[in-house]
Amino acid sequence: MRGQTRHRQCIPLKTWSQRCKDRHATRILSDWPIARPNKASRGIHRIRDNNECFRLAAIQSLLHLPKFMNWILTHNENGNFPCHPDIMKRHSAHENWQGVCAACSFKKLIRRYWGNGKLCADGQPRPLAGNHVDIRRIHTLDDNISGMVGAVQQQDAEECQSRLLEACRDSVDYE
Ligand SMILES: [Zn+2]
After folding, report:
1. Helix/strand/coil percentages in the chain, nearest 5
2. Rounded to an integer, what distance in angstroms lies between the CA atom of residue 62 and that of residue 96?
3. pLDDT at 147
């Protein structure tokens, strides 16, 4: 037993950074943040002839991760994780684009997607159009952070999702 204790002290199972992440993660709720009585997912309609299915796959999977959504929903709430002051510079690969906060953009989309708007008479949520303003905002964000504005070729959904997650992380001021 004594040997095992010494072993644990010498070789930490987790790094300091991982322990910090774990500590923060435990404070984030795991519940589904759905405002409406009907908890069904609404889906997103793809608009034909646009190069967007890889991006919609990335966005839609993020809209089904309760921890991610609850983290984003705390952004700017009660002074928590405000927008980073340099956000306009961080997310633009193009000088002429003013930039948007990725966390604010996802927060609007999460509220729209899981909110009370666009319901059928029986309360069933209707799908969002792929060109809805709250989704177009994220298309524009990814166009600019990837530097692929106007690109028509297919892209990789996992790479897109990583870009969007990094943009959310970098758009928040943790100081
Ligand atoms: Zn923001």
Report:
1. 50, 5, 45
2. 28
3. 79
Distance 104 CA to ligand 1 centre (A): 4
Three-class SS state of 129: strand
Read off the pLDDT of residues 126-150 as tens digits, 9 standing for 90 and up: 999 988 999 999 988 888 888 776 6
CA distances 142 to 26, 36, 67, 101, Å, are: 29, 29, 22, 11
Ligand 1 centroid vs 108 CA: distance in angstroms? 10
92 residue type, one letter = S
Q: What's the 168 CA to ligand 1 centre distance in angstroms? A: 8
Q: What is the DSSP letter of 49?
A: T
- The per-residue pLDDT for 154 is 73
Residue ranges of the chain whose pLDDT lies below 70 = 1-10, 48-50, 87-98, 149-153, 175
Q: Are strands 128-129 and 44-45 parallel, antiparallel or unpaired?
A: parallel
* DSSP H or E run through 44: strand 44-45
pLDDT attached to residue 143: 86
Contact between 118 and 129 (Cβ < 8 Å): no
